[in-house]
């Protein structure tokens, strides 16, 4: 099937305005008749629930944590982009769009990126009005800093806490609507199934994580703002509870999963210290504004103290290879360069999996106090984890899985191929192409939540009669029965290996075979090993306790079971995409200097997969990508 | 980097099946723990051992494991988050403990935080306080340009100091009165400091403090335990600022 993104036609500069005018409106007094389900309360979900509630819709919002304020958006540190051009350094909506399309290695939809860039400015205004304390300069105006993949300063920030401050802003707006009664909030609920009636998304089945009960909720539209899936690598920068479960449930009910192989490995994370490690911690890319990345030039120097290695014996490899972007080269390129250096035996720290991030020159130039003011909380965090002082000796960093550019396929209205199912934020695939630039995730989450879905969902709702399907529909009971059956199965295997052991094993396969560098051989290997591990899981996993209670092992078992299915799809997508682009690097497809080699003639499309059953191969559907405003070019940061 | 010597520890952990169960302490051994384990990774190891012994693992709230989501919540040796300055449980590392140590682990204990199971408590009351007024009532869209209202840098910085609160509830667990004054004071102050929050400042402080009382939180009697245990170092001066806002509101 050839998919149609239903993008507006005509000049790109007018595309979103024209589309907004073309969308049909729901009369204010009719809005309260419509029920909308919002799963997830991160930036996208909280912003959307708050905005839709304020418009007058009845919203039911769900999160697995004990409060909507805890979604993992909160951990984003560095900042949020906007095309305000406050520093007058040449920025514009078109330039933000250009940087994002190029940064995504020409695998994103132009119209979506234009819209994102256009509303980026509204986001900053909105957050300021909510009382988000952005950094200010001494005159009292908003301050900016630079992020990877851009030559302008367009990143707004609040210390190293930007995600927290933006999420708390959205949470406060959501709290206001909860108080007003337009949003009903359901905490400690995990979505386990999507209910589809006659091909239309009509509700969800959730597990009440405290009582263990399965609950049904019906609505006129279901929105998933359920984040990304990089915990498929086991060790990642995501929160422990982040999973593919809600998105995979939708995929199994017919929603296409687009570009699952586009995963972002973030270059500035704290290296793994041991086998027992449960997660990796990211340090904001903003550190690369003032930190210089290097490894020793000589292998015999890797064991030495960094301070004993003279400047002449250090390889500042990003500055050397990418002189015009230097340490601010985009994430995929920086990560791959770090891996190359470590593969060449020049890595530092345990297992040789680390490179230095050095602030010595910046401290000399600006003073330690200035560096502390800019990044104090990051240095503090680094010291707590590693017991090392980043002001005194260079930090050690290594890439780690961080973000999923792939996600459920959506059209320009953020609706999936299943009518009534909308997907927002990281959970969808739309704007980042094959690589996301820094400070763009927060922008997308809030763009989708505050300024896109409130318009586009109306265009769908006017076509449906409110309250047509209720939870007494047979599909709801069937869904609850199915979910209960799976849960009981997990509880009754009583095997010999814990859920975490399986998750770690899956992580080793995905990281080694579907990680920063992929080959036909490694991917074929993953496609063989993952189903084997999945079979073993269903024979030999051990889940203690019961389903009628708070049971974290059971929650985890369900999530890992889904990753064991999804991981295979990720590998299949990576195998089929015979090119290198952004975060997807196939060793067979590289330029003589080791840069990614795209194949625009054959692969300039979105690859959206239809689930056909675990024992059957998924079916690929394509949405061709057209580049009319930003012309296809080799992505160079030299 | 320090060496990877391993430790054996005795854990005395609060186990409680449900809100109505009386609960009791149980003793466990944590083996092969290195100085680089985080406290939660140490508990993960204990839980893996429990599962392999067919016992129910200890349940505890956690999520981001990088000290920002505010989910983790344990009283360790009598101190919320374990007593290391500006540190959540998930960022506490085992290098702060010695081989052979005995560690007491309990949930947050406060009237407004009923225990759900083991170390997990219900903190919905904190959401209730925010819902009472912890926001500016701006609409989505229709707001002025971000630079239209200047905010002096020191004011923006002070508002950020208050806004760093992660809503974990350690301040409540540490307070002899089970008060949420630091939590409430931080939000009241953040919004009262900023020009965008001024129009509703009086109504906000009255509504939020009333909600805190209704939820069963106590009052402040200046013990400052809240500030001592806050993993983000939120300053008790924000309670004083809230009190000033409260007084002003009486005459508003």
Note down, in words, how this protein is organized.
- The complex is a heterodimer of chains A (638) and B (252).
- Chain A is α/β, with parallel strands linked by helices and 638 residues long.
- In chain A, helix 3 (43-55) packs parallel to helix 6 (162-180), helix 5 crosses helix 12 and helix 14 packs parallel to helix 16 (552-576).
- The longest helix of chain A has 25 residues, at 552-576.
- Chain A is built from 17 helices and 21 strands.
- Chain A has three domains: 31-262 and 403-461, FAD/NAD(P)-binding domain; 266-401, Succinate dehydrogenase/fumarate reductase flavoprotein, catalytic domain (Flavocytochrome C3, Chain A, domain 1, Alpha-Beta Complex), CATH 3.90.700.10; 474-619, Fumarate reductase/succinate dehydrogenase flavoprotein-like, C-terminal domain (Methane Monooxygenase Hydroxylase, Chain G, domain 1, Up-down Bundle).
- The N and C termini of chain B lie far apart (58 Å).
- By secondary structure, chain B is α+β, with helices and mostly antiparallel strands.
- In chain B, a hairpin with a 2-residue loop joins strand 3 and strand 4 (79-80).
- Chain B has two domains: 6-106, Beta-grasp domain (Ubiquitin-like (UB roll), Roll), CATH 3.10.20.30; 123-136 and 146-250, Alpha-helical ferredoxin (Fumarate Reductase Iron-sulfur Protein, Chain B, domain 2, Orthogonal Bundle), CATH 1.10.1060.
- The longest helix of chain B has 14 residues, at 39-52.
- At the A-B interface, helix 3, helix 5, helix 6, helix 11 and helix 12 of A face helix 1, helix 2 and helix 3 of B.
């Amino acid at each position: 099937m050839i998919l149609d993104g239903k993008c507006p036609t005509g000049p790109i500069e007018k595309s979103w305005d024209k589309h907004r005018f073309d969308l049909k409106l729901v009369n204010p007094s009719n809005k309260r008749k419509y029920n909308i389900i919002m799963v997830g309360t991160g930036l996208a979900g909280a912003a959307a629930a708050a905005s839709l509630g304020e418009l007058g819709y009845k919203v039911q919002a769900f999160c697995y944590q004990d409060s909507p304020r805890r979604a993992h958006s909160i951990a984003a540190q560095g900042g949020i982009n906007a095309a305000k051009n406050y520093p007058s350094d040449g920025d514009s909506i078109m330039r933000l769009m250009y940087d994002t399309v190029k940064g995504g290695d020409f695998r994103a939809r132009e119209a979506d990126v234009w819209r994102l860039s256009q509303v980026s400015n509204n986001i900053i205004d909105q957050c300021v009005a909510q009382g988000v304390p952005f950094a200010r300069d001494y005159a009292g105006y908003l301050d900016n800093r630079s992020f990877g993949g851009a030559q302008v300063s367009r990143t707004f920030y609040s210390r190293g806490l930007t995600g927290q401050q933006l999420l708390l802003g959205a949470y406060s707006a959501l709290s206001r609507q909860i108080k007003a009664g337009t949003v009903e909030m359901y905490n400690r609920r995990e979505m386990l199934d999507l209910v589809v009636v006659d091909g239309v998304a009509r509700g969800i089945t959730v597990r009440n994580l405290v009582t263990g009960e399965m609950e049904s909720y019906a609505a006129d539209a279901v929105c998933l703002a359920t984040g990304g899936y990089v915990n498929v690598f086991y060790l990642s920068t995501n929160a422990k509870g982040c999973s593919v479960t809600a998105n995979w449930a939708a995929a199994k009910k017919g929603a296409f999963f687009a570009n699952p192989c586009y995963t972002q490995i973030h270059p500035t994370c704290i290296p793994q210290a041991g086998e027992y490690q449960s997660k990796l911690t990211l340090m904001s890319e903003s550190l690369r504004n003032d930190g210089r990345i290097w490894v020793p030039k000589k292998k015999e120097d890797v064991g030495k103290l960094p301070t004993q290695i003279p400047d002449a014996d250090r390889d500042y490899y990003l500055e050397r290879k990418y002189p015009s972007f230097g340490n601010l080269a985009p994430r995929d390129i920086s990560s791959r360069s770090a891996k190359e250096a470590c593969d060449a035996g020049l890595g530092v720290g345990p297992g040789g999996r680390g490179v230095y991030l050095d602030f010595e020159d910046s401290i000399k130039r600006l003073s330690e106090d200035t560096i502390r003011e800019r990044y104090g909380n990051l240095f503090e965090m680094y010291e707590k984890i590693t017991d090392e002082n980043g002001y005194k000796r260079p930090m050690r960093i290594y890439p780690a899985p961080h973000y999923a550019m792939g996600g459920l396929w959506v059209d320009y209205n953020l609706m999936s191929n299943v009518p009534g199912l909308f997907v927002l934020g990281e959970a969808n695939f739309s704007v980042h192409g094959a690589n996301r630039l820094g400070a763009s995730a927060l922008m997308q989450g809030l763009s989708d939540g505050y300024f896109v879905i409130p318009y586009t969902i109306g265009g769908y709702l006017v076509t449906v009669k409110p309250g047509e399907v209720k939870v007494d529909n047979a599909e709801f009971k069937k869904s609850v029965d199915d979910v209960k059956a799976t849960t009981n199965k997990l509880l009754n295997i009583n095997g010999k290996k814990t859920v975490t052991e399986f998750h770690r094993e899956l992580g080793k396969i995905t990281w080694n075979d579907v990680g920063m560098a992929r080959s036909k051989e490694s991917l074929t290997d993953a496609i063989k090993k993952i189903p084997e591990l999945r079979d073993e899981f269903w024979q030999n996993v051990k889940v203690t306790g019961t389903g009628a209670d708070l049971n974290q092992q059971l929650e985890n078992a369900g999530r890992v079971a889904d990753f064991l299915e999804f991981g295979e799809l990720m590998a299949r997508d990576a195998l089929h995409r015979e090119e290198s682009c952004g975060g997807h690097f196939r060793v067979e497809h590289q330029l003589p200097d080791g840069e990614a080699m795209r194949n625009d003639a054959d692969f300039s499309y979105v690859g959206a997969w239809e689930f056909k059953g675990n024992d059957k191969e998924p079916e690929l559907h394509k949405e061709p990508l057209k580049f009319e405003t930003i012309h296809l070019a080799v992505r160079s940061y030299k | 980097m320090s060496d990877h010597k391993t430790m054996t520890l005795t854990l005395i952990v609060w186990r409680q099946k449900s809100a109505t169960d009386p609960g009791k302490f149980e003793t466990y051994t944590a083996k092969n723990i290195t100085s680089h384990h985080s406290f939660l990774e140490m508990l993960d190891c204990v839980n893996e051992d429990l599962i392999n012994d067919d016992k129910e693992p200890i349940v505890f709230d956690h999520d981001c494991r990088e000290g920002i989501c505010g989910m983790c919540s344990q009283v360790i040796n009598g101190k919320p988050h374990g007593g290391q300055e500006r540190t959540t449980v998930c960022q506490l590392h085992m290098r702060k403990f010695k081989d052979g140590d005995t560690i007491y682990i309990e949930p947050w204990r406060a009237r407004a935080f009923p225990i759900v199971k083991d170390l997990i408590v219900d903190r919905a009351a904190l959401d209730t306080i925010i819902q009472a007024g912890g926001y500016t009532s701006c609409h989505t869209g229709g707001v002025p340009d971000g630079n239209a209202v200047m905010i002096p840098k020191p004011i923006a910085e002070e508002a950020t100091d208050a806004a760093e609160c992660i809503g974990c509830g350690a301040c409540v667990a540490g307070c002899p009165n089970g008060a949420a004054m630091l939590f409430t004071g931080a939000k009241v102050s953040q919004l009262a400091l900023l020009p965008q929050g001024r129009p509703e400042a009086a109504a906000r402080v009255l509504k939020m403090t009333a909600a805190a009382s209704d939820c069963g939180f106590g009052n402040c009697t200046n013990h400052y335990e809240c500030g001592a245990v806050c993993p983000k170092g939120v300053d008790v001066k924000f309670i004083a600022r809230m009190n000033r806002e409260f007084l002003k509101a009486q005459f508003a």
